[in-house]
Amino acid sequence: MLINVPASSVSTPPASPLYDQHGRPLEYLRLAVTDRCNLRCFYCMPEQGIQYMPRQELLSYEEMLRLCSLLAGLGVRKVRLTGGEPFVRRDLMPFIERLVEVPGIADVSLTTNGVLTRPHVPALARLGIRSVNLSLDTLNRERFHRITRRDELPQVLATLQALLDEGIQVKINAVVMEGQNIEDLIPLAELSRELPVDVRFIEEMPFNGGSHAATPASLPWHHQRIRQHLEQHFGALTPLPRPAGATAADYTIAGHTGSVGIIAAYSRTFCGSCNRLRLTPEGGLKTCLYDQGVLDTRALLRGGASDADIRAALAQAFRNRAKDGFEAEQQRPLHQLSFESMATIGG
């Protein structure tokens, strides 16, 4: 997925990839533009929601653009906008218009729950956004309401259709949860039969805002079992080539137009090739989903740091990266991951 680079930036030479101390390039930024969300998915936050940050504590769009420009100079090529729900934040589309013009950023995409997205789909297509991850854990309206605590499935499905109509690549993200949506795995995978979508099944992670305890015993549906379940219905899955840095193991199913994928997010089988960084809504840099944050970029931005100062601080953080998610988790005080919400750390 490539964004058309404006003529003014064509002459900008690409930066050499920056590597961490384990030899992994850092090329992909997941940028959380807000911690707010219009759904209340039980695996992400408690029913009453979380304590949202005051708006003045969120990075401004100008601050985000400055950081993206600096990171592009250090080798970041892809930016995925996440949340919370990105479209809950006002003026998101003007921000995207500016982001796609940042020299060096060749790929801009986003992850959304689809509730507020449909009216913006034509503009996204015009801006060259060619890939959208759509969160969708069930096709059953009653179960959708139970999982998200909101009755919004029709709006999400309308967004899915609008994205396909515009020719935007859609990856459907479904969190696999014991006792909640196991009966939906096959119907969701069936979407790939006729539609050019990649349906990706994700191991449940412990970032739930404290709504329930996160322990290894709470993960009966690990990546091997998900694959076995799919193969019992569809027959053998054929692996697709796995690009460097990919989190999903993707497969084709005989006779299907699209594909299915499995993301071992809790088992963390892909850490050895991870090329991702995260920026939380308040500017916390995370070099691993499971770390507690390694750099306060907001303090640098608002403290008068020069571009050179910020680049040096970023590079230093990259050179002190945990080797995998397990090491990052062990370095956290008390390992209390469940008291974070995915809405606060960038999806």
What does this structure look like?
It comes from Hymenobacter saemangeumensis. Keywords: 4Fe-4S, GTP-binding, Iron, Iron-sulfur, Lyase, Metal-binding, Molybdenum cofactor biosynthesis, Nucleotide-binding, S-adenosyl-L-methionine. Pfam families: Mob_synth_C (PF06463), Radical_SAM (PF04055). [4Fe-4S] cluster 2 binds at residues 271, 274, 288. It is a single chain. With 347 residues, the protein is an alpha/beta fold. The chain has a single domain, classed as Aldolase class I (TIM Barrel, Alpha-Beta Barrel), CATH 3.20.20. The protein is 28% helix and 18% strand. The protein has eleven helices and 14 strands. The radius of gyration is 19 Å and the shape is globular.
